[in-house]
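User: Teach me something about this protein's shape.
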Amino acid sequence: MGFESLNDILDFAVKREREAILFYKELQDLSKFSEQRKMLFELETMERGHIEILENIRYTKLELIEIPEIENLKISDYLVKSKPTENMSYQDILISAIKKEESSNNFYNDLASMVNNPEYRKLFLKLASEEAKHKLYFEKIYDDEILKEN
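Assistant: First, the predicted structure itself:
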């Protein structure tokens, strides 16, 4: 996957965020409970926020980008990804969201390791950290509402 410019990377990342928005919209359509739909709408909104962040990066110096370290609860390591269905439980929705964010995090980390340009590497690591934040958000919900109930 070759990127000629920063704009190529940002365009690619925006496309991925739009795919995530569609993913969360699909889950909203499959969800039977208003609280689940509300949570999924919040996730969709978070992804829209990512697009805004990406668009703002076009006008920011990459050296000013900070990459925070994000805690990893590693709950996703023990979860199995499944396809969204109409009969998804709250737990299934959380697992789908966790696995989606984990996949995006891994993807951006892999891209960071493949590029030679240090600025592009930094940008991919920033995108990976944003996805890691989302994964952590869902893992905490999963820990509080699913694991602690059992």
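Now, about its shape. The first helix runs from residue 6 to 30. The helical segments are 6-30, 34-57, 90-114, 118-147. If you'd like, I can walk through any region in more detail.
User: That's plenty for now, thanks!
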